[in-house]
Write a structure and sequence with these properties.
127 residues, alpha+beta, 34% strand, globular
Length: 127
Amino acid sequence: LAPDGSMREETFSVAAPGTVVKVQLVCLRDQLYVWVGADGGDASFAHGEMSMAFPGLRDRTTRVVTPSIAALTSDVSQENADRASYHLASRLARRAGVSVVASVNVAADLRPLAERAIAEKLAEMGM
């Protein structure tokens, strides 16, 4: 891609109890890719489950935005049984107003920390 500002990549880490959460954001013109992983463990830098969400249309009567979401891959392990990528993609699509592909590969107790850090970074980036 030409350096015309149509793509931006941000990688950062967040200190967490006993580990470091790693986040990669790739911002395209109308899409956001999010990967979340952590130091340690066998699947630290793997892509477990992955989901995509499209920002929904605002319902005129309820004013609720309902994104369309699809699982792109499936990881049947117990750790990812709650479909963290699915939920993160949905919330970020609603917030940023762009389609979001997300892969979350951290334990449940680290996800709120990661999501707060992502929201702060997106706000800093104007999204």
